[in-house]
Amino acid sequence: MMKPMRCQVCGEVYLGDEVPDRCPFCGAAGKQMVSAAEWIDYGKVDMNDFDMEQCRTALGFEISNATFYKCCAGKAENIFNQAIFKRLTKQEMEHAELLANMMGVDMPDFTEESCPDTDKEKYEEAHLREHRAIKFYLESAAKCENPRVKEIFRALSEIETEHLQISNVYR
Ligand SMILES: [Fe+2]
Ligand SMILES: [Fe+2]
Asked: How remote is the CA of residue 78 from the centroid of ligand 2, in Å?
């Protein structure tokens, strides 16, 4: 029977019979989906200035990548790539919201991002952006102090690794 599950990364609720392979909202691994009754609300995380600064940088990456993918979806060459870019836009938006919640700040304004005309070049740029995000999250997870911040940065690095693999397949 359908039951509510909740993502321990992004907090979104999923109704289903089985634990999904990945969170349909943020892309986190299925192991992050817990029964809604067992879900822990971390809310705003009490972190030091260094961790806060790292979260601010991360939020900047997520907003920038979400805006980039939105541009890509808006001028994709076919509906297949459009579907991928749409999903990536939503996942990066979830990541941005998650970071803003952890920091206890409002979502920042959107940046202006342009994107290449051909889908091949879009995926090439996606590859560079995801590579940059993964590198940042892994290095930052090691340097940050707060355990929740570390955990989220590691989870995000795994999700962006999946995005990187998508860019590798289609570029
Ligand atoms: Fe999620
Ligand atoms: Fe992301």
From this structure: 23
